[in-house]
Model the fold of this input.
Amino acid sequence: MVAAMVDLSGVRTTASQSAQSKGRGSVAVSLQSLAPIAPIALIFVIAAVAIPGFASGPNLIAVVQASAITGIAAIGAAAITIVGKFVSLAIEQQAVTAAYVFTAVLSIGQPVAVAVAATLIVAVIIGAVQGYLVARGLNPIVTTLAFGSALFGAVVLLSNNRTITLRHNPLAWLGGGTSWGVPNQAVVFVILLAIGTVFLSHTRLGRQIVLCGANPKAAELIGIPISRLVIIAYISAALASALVGMLVVGQVSQASSNMFDGLTIDVVAAILVGGIAIQGGEGQLWRAGVGALILTMLSNIMLLLGLDAGVRLLLKGGLAAAVLLAMTVMRRRSR
Amino acid sequence: MSRLDKGLGLRLGLSILLIVICAIEVDGFATMATLASIVENVALIGLLAAGLMLTMVAGQLDAAVASVAAVSAIIALLLGPYSLVLGIVVALVVAGLYGCGIGWIIARTGVSSLVLTVCMLIGLRGLALILVPQSPAVLADGLLWVSDGLVARVGPTTVLGIIGLVLILALGLGMRCTRLGLSLYAVGGNLERARGSGVNTTKVYMVAFAGSAMLAATAGILAALRSGSASGTGLDSFLLDGVTAAVVGGVSLEGGRGSIINVLLGSLIVRIIAAAAALLGMQSSVESIATGCILLAMLLLDDALGTRRGMKTAARWRVLGRPLRT
Done:
């Protein structure tokens, strides 16, 4: 009973806080929403001036394509963070699975619609199983680590670790094409980001997911089906990974077991660098996209500067840790 | 106490059952060579799992062990040409200082240890690749006797196995019989109550993470000395192996629960299966499927046998990294 009272008072404070912040005027809000553009613009301008080759057309398209791939996976995985289950360590394994399912179905002569449907169905199953396990109370990071290992082993075993190459690639227009000079992958990314943002802030289900991450006890008390929301979050992460798998197959016309090496690291780093509160409960999905863009630009710059893979990884990990700590300390101060 | 015995009996029974099945079904399993290799690997994985157990018992998790092991092994081998002892000492000291720092940050800021150490897993892997960008660091020719000495057979195991087992058992004694060891359990079992009864939680977290980093470093250095080389991308299976051994060994991810004998039996179960799979000529993909499935099954079992729901919720809140008042 005491616990229940504490929780309800917690809900009330959150409600009054949000009422206060609304009353503070819209200037601060709009400035805050512009804040993420600043680091991107700053990095872009400095790099364009200082590094020859950065602002060239082909390089910018490469940056946009790479950040779209990381970004799509990141906004899906961000659902897991927002619902309060940290991050998934099975993202690249999910994407590899999707790529193999997609190419395998296509290579036995099925139409592209069947291949897409099969890939999405497999993704839903993968997401639902992980979501169910985590919703039962299993540790999210260890569960996704174990699940990813089993999934990757199964894919390598079933494919005999062969690379499947498509002779005819029906998704080449989506994976490699451009619309008005913008890579189609980036168009997909922006559309998904818009859909996700509207879903989280304007639908009942989306708002429930945010509340579930912000205060799981309160959410449980007012009768929100937490397990179902966690399962939905994991399914959306798996679907986003599956989409990434299909887009990259569309781009390179083949599936191999190492095609997504490092994707999990990039996605985790993008979510952290973008500054989505790792405790969950903040539905600012664009942060994942911003994180992906910042990281990809930095990676590209470091590549152009001739820095090794090791330095790039060290900076990714260091930047993610720095933003994580800064966010945690700021959150504590604001209480 | 009775539940502890039940868990011990369960794991002991499972290990014996597995050994009997493998000895009958798998050709070449019931030999001294296989036994020695299993015990040696149990000691190696056991060191990792024992380190993870320190953090898990305190209600946290150190996900960076694989990269810490790789960096330490590389430092030891790179300094090897000057003095191998110096290299090992420097690697252990660096790992210990790193662990103290991580523990201090976690205690002071209340940041989620899971997520912070995942960042460290990424960043330290980068450091390993910076230290040896191309070809792996190798043991100098004059020092190859160390490698041979470590795998020299002693009874049912090897020198490496004995070093590892002695360290693990000493750690187990320390956890059960010293004030500091018991305060790890106290902090993991009920943080507020531990703090109320005067436990210095900052110190406990620093000890847990320093211990975890140093044990991972020991495992990494021993593995590198055994094979005679350490590469920038090596040892990356250590995280999954260590966590699997610890969880199969009944260490609760919710804190406050775990014993060293069970962790050793957990490592034994994992290594028996791996050895049998290798003898049957199975691909490594089968091993990763098996490891993943065992880990998931044990997580479910741990959950099903778990404590009362109220206590579990309290523990989950702590693992979720809510700010600690220090």
Q: What stands out?
A: The first strand of chain A starts at residue 164 and ends at 165. The first helix of chain A runs from residue 2 to 23. DSSP finds 15 helices and four strands in chain A. The domain at 53-333 of chain A is CATH 1.10.3470 (ABC transporter involved in vitamin B12 uptake, BtuC).
